Automatic annotation (TrEMBL):
Protein name: histidine kinase
UniProt organism field: Sedimenticola selenatireducens
Sequence ranges assigned to domain PAC in this UniProt record: 136-188
Coiled coil (UniProt feature): 176-206
Reaction equations catalysed: ATP + protein L-histidine = ADP + protein N-phospho-L-histidine
InterPro entries cross-referenced by the UniProt entry: HATPase_C_sf, HATPase_dom, His_kinase_dom, HisK_dim/P_dom, HisK_dim/P_sf, PAS, PAS-assoc_C, PAS-like_dom_sf
Keywords assigned by UniProt, alphabetized: ATP-binding, Coiled coil, Kinase, Nucleotide-binding, Phosphoprotein, Transferase, Two-component regulatory system
Record domain Histidine kinase: where: 215-452
Length: 452
């Protein structure tokens, strides 16, 4: 009810009140009007503020709605929003594209109509399952516009209102064909990368072996030449002995036989033939040892760890690499003859070859290249230190030198696998390999093996 403060009071009341009362009444009416006007101003200001806030919130809601619509349109996954009875309330463009039906046609229809008969037993349980759990990656068949099924990996989760009441469910499905293709492509890529890595590791081993060919050829040349010369001498000796025996069998007179014996130097042959045979066998054994070392270096035979002397292994590794080097460094080797380690001889040989080769490579620009190798026993371990006098390893690279494919060499001069392989070979036999810089300059690699 609105009170009309401008209405005049009745005449009887005016008659009963005096002039003073009339003045007081007029003053009170004016104050009441002022108070009403002030309150109306406050209400109007509140209305204006509420209107502004309402417009801002409406604008934010519109932006949110546009954002959600743009996201749904851009989604390649199928999106279906249903009420608790399974009636479709919202669908995205991906669903329209696959089914050939617009969102308007789909609204208020049961979502089960979208799936093939083989999937009905699965979708029937969605409404019950969402009350206690979320359905993950359930494979169902969505019917396309032509009636053919499209397999989907479907996820189904609950939908709640602002009061936390269950009001429906949200289904999101991704075509399984895309997932399978993506998985197959990923698997194929992984397989190719693995094969490429194996090929690179093998290529690095073969490249290391190739760098040693010149040194190994020199190693083989000495015993082979020795065997070759001895065999020629034995062939000549055999011819003379045959000639002498033929004379004996023919019944040649004793004087003639003795003359022939001196002429053919039979006594000298008999005294020399033993040493020739021994020397030939020694040369053949040396060739066999070299070939065995090569097989250990280049092959993949699995050996058991066993004690072996380190000095010969270090000497062979250094000789093979240095003899094949373009610039031969000054080499100092200090390995006690009695020093033994427990490991796989062929793997230790390969590690040392890689370390020596790496040291020679980094000293390519050094005026007077030097290489120091020393070994000693440290309690239950044996340590072999390979130090070069090159520029050293940058501090930021110390933690990366054993990473596969890491190299500071120019393109085409290194694969970055030599130290990586060496690190793995050391670990395979219960040892370790660490890199550091010497206080006086140059890089230092320390191989640790178990002591006997």
């Amino acid at each position: 009810m609105v009170t009309d403060y401008s209405a005049k009071p009745s005449g009887g009341l005016i008659a009963n009140l005096g002039t003073d009362n009339q003045m007081m009444h007029d003053s009170g009416s004016e104050e009441a009007w002022i108070e009403v006007i002030q309150k109306m101003d406050l209400v109007y200001a509140d209305l204006v503020r509420y209107q502004v806030e309402l417009e801002e919130k409406n604008s934010a809601l519109e932006e949110a709605q546009h954002f959600i619509e743009s996201v749904q349109t851009a989604m390649t996954d199928v999106l279906i929003v249903c009420d608790i009875q399974g009636r479709i309330q919202q669908a995205n463009k991906a669903l329209e594209t696959i089914t050939g039906r617009s969102e308007k046609e789909l609204l208020n229809r049961s979502f089960k109509e979208l799936f093939g008969e083989s999937s009905q037993h699965l979708v029937d349980g969605f409404a019950d399952k969402i009350r206690s759990e979320t359905v993950y990656d359930c494979e169902v068949n969505l019917l396309r516009a032509d009636g053919k099924p499209t397999p989907l990996a479907m996820n189904c989760s609950s939908r709640y209102d602002h009061n936390g009441r269950l009001v429906g469910m949200v289904l999101i499905g991704r075509p399984v064909g895309e997932l399978r293709r993506a998985y197959e492509e990923l698997h194929a890529t992984h397989r190719e990368l693995k094969q490429a890595q194996e090929q690179l590791v093998h290529s690095e081993k073969m490249a290391s072996l190739g760098r040693l060919v010149a040194g190994v050829a020199h190693e083989l040349n000495n015993p082979i030449s020795f065997v070759f010369g001895n065999m020629h001498a034995l062939k000549r000796y055999g011819s003379r002995i045959t000639q002498y025996l033929d004379a004996i069998h023919k019944g040649t007179a004793e004087e003639e036989r003795e003359a022939l014996r001196k002429q053919l130097k039979i006594d000298h042959i008999l005294s020399d033939i033993g040493s020739l045979i021994d020397g030939t066998l020694e040369g053949a054994e040396r060739v066999s040892d070299i070939v065995l070392d090569l097989r250990r270096f280049s092959g993949n035979q699995q050996e058991d760890t066993q004690p072996f002397p380190l000095a010969p292994v270090v000497a062979t590794a250094v000789d093979w690499v240095v003899k094949a080097a373009r610039r031969k460094p000054e080499v100092s080797v200090d390995i006690p003859e009695e020093l033994e380690a427990v490991g796989i001889k062929g793997l230790v040989h390969q590690i040392l070859v890689n370390l020596v080769q790496n040291a020679i490579d980094v000293m390519d620009e050094v005026d007077a290249p030097r290489l120091q190798i020393r070994g000693w026993q440290d309690w239950d371990n044996v340590r072999i230190e390979v130090r070069d006098f090159g520029p050293g390893i940058p501090k930021q690279d110390l933690m990366r030198v054993f990473d596969p494919f890491f190299t500071t060499k120019d393109v085409g001069k290194g694969t970055g696998l030599g130290l990586y392989i060496s690190y793995g070979l050391a670990s395979d036999q219960g040892g370790s390999l660490i890199a550091s810089n010497h206080p006086d300059g140059g890089a230092m690699f320390t191989l640790t093996l178990k002591a006997v």
